[in-house]
Amino acid sequence: MKLLIKNGRVIDPKNGIDQQLDIFVNNGLIKKIGENINLENVDRVIDASGKIVCPGFIDIHVHLRDPGYQYKEEIASGSRAAAAGGFTTICCMPNTKPVIDNASVAAYVRQMAAKTAVVNVWPIGAITKNQGGEEITEMADLIAAGCIAVSDDGKPVEKAELMRNALEYARMFHLPVLSHCEDRSLAADGQMHEGYFSTIYGFKGIPTAAEEVMVSRDIILAGLTGGHVHICHISSKGTVDLIRKAKAQGINVTCEVTPHHLTLTDEAVGSYDTNTKVNPPLRSAEHIKALLEGIKDGTIDCIATDHAPHELESKDCEYNYASFGISGLETAIPLIMSLVGKHFDLNKMVSLFTTGPASVMGLNKGSLEIGGAADITIIDPKKSKTVDPGSFYSKGKNTPYAGRKLKGWPYMTIVNGKVKAEDGRIIEE
Ligand code: DOR
Questions:
Q1: How far apart are the C-alpha atoms of 93 and 103, rounded to whole Å?
Q2: Which of 64, 306, 329 to mutate to test the pocket of ligand 1 (most atoms within 8 A of CB)?
């Protein structure tokens, strides 16, 4: 299969490229990048004029729910949501049933992905067996079966001594430890951010301290062990400050932020739409401001969706009973595009989805390399569309953005040289 992508604005932060160029793809690989490439006998010429051509976008925090919760999502449906949303590579969290805490479950994910996925899928193994917080997993086995990080996401690792040992053990394998930072005693029964609006709406609040106490602990333990701790879905000013300081001290800490924590405040909970219920909760405007500053000064390494699809019953209930989570893969790009030009530029945006996540996970991806896999994301910055969860490929229709008009959507997702999605629709082979 030969593809020629013509006249796009190619942005490749790793190689310092931002100019109008053509890209020639053959047999799944990038063969040539240059001005005015003209070739005969190509299978398809893609007119990318007016579009932004980037290395394939990577989402390191996705819940595919498979095995065990296929009524919420499957590897097939979640990977299609990823491709439709402009992602070429996703990493899936281990809070499945059974938990991805041993080689056979990891192998299942890899095999199902090989059979049914339309994007690259990398499993993340658990830190502790059954995510029970008591016994560390056999990380070497998990790596051999294809895992590229460990996490108990969805749950914190409560015991500090165990986290210390996990960081020491993971360090031997250069494995990042992805930490869901939540002090459960502080967060207990909380429904939303603790602040002005939780008082007005009458919900029990989750203080930012519930996150920050754990972030502090994990930074101290990363300093003690030299292990790499990656803080998942950061949501507060205090967390940004702690990570900024730790990085300045040379501690091996990285972090991610979600599109929803950057674009919605806790005021949105006043709709009583359970799709605004997420963990950590949507915070107030001052926290969004601090997160945006963290992006600008490099404290925040990447954007990750925390794609958390749920079936209707988990959300179609009273707020207090609803599950936490937002189906995020299919709205991430336009949500972040809405911040471009106001808070950071396009190059920064692309790096947050490419070089940033690749370097956190140690993935040899996130740039356009001659001879490298042709994973390419093309964005149409002018396209406006109203979010319609009914048209999501994800089984999870749980989005608080339904009906919102957004601008700057993925135009094409190319994985290993094959067009997997075009204008939001999946191209099945
Ligand atoms: O809102 C969330 N949903 N936050 C998490 O940390 C876990 C996730 C889930 O698995 O549903």
A1: 15
A2: 306
